[in-house]
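Input.
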Amino acid sequence: MYKPRASKNEMTFDMADRAESRKLKGNLAFFSKAQTLLEEKGETDAAFYMEMIKDHLREGGQLESEKAARILGL
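Output.
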C-alpha cells in the first residue's frame, strides 16, 4: 500500500499526535514537580491546585486562561 511521505515542511497526523503527546507529558511533569516542591514547603493548598490541573490535563482538558477558575474549582 502506498503511503505518501511528508515533505520537510509538511506535518503529518502522526507527527502532530507525537508533538501533542510530548507537550502533554511536559506539562504533566511540570505540574507534578510544582506539586512536589509546594508540598515540601508546606504549601498544601497550592499543591492541591497543581494536582487539580494535572487531573484536568489527564482527562483531555486544555490550558486556557478563560477556564482557569473552572479548572481550579474557584
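The longest helix spans residues 13-40.
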